[in-house]
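Build the 3D complex.
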Amino acid sequence: MLSALAERRDLNRESPLADRLAPDATPGGYRVRAIWQTLQGEGAFAGYPAVFVRFAGCNLWSGDEAHRRRDHARLGAACALFCDTDFRKAGSVRIGPDALAAHVRQVADAGRLDDSPGPRLAVLTGGEPLLQADALLVTTLRAEGFAVAVETNGTVALADAFGPDPAHWPDWVACSPKLPESHLNIEAMDELKLVVPAYTPDAYPTLAARVRPQRLGGREVFYRWLQPEDGPRLAEARRVAVALAEAHPSWRVSVQTHKVLGVD
Ligand code: SF4
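Done.
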């Protein structure tokens, strides 16, 4: 039983979607790099199973190692220097909303062992997913029974991506800004995550005020996270995150549980 479960996990690791689908499954559709089920590693839903949809492309770095310093200098985002996500077009496919939602359901169903309803969560990530995701995709995924979460850098307004009606916006919005506040257009979010030490609370007071409260036991809870930057300066980043959380009690330290657990 346990070895069978481990085998299922191995089958559902992040890999280029082009290994499974034709490169142009839907001409004109979204350009998607990967669809896979894993555990949400961060934030309020850490530990929940979710199907991730990684859109290709970002507006803050080309994704090419050779362009890190160039894009950092040109666009001003420190994350271009340390981003460890592969969102390049290589290995991606073009896929429309119906085929994408069907594939998300297929991936979710392949990972479960019983018919319990359980949470059905689709996480749209990237790159920058709001360059492509739209209201039709949200509607289509909901029709398949999924709540829709999005992980964004905050540069694109939700109304620009999903239209003016908030009913068509994703169910959960997590924002991790990589540019100064003056460059951000996102109207509201359910979680705000700052990757320290490059990004700190004193630089994001306006964005912090846009975090929507959640209700927990009759109290309002705000999800504002300090995420230590992974990589060569992780030890320093952890120390800074702890010090900042102590100095700013409305923020708390986030742990990347998927890295602790060794899942991707
Ligand atoms: S915005 Fe996000 S995906 Fe894009 S380069 Fe920065 S960290 Fe990477």
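The CA atoms of residues 17 and 34 lie 5 Å apart.
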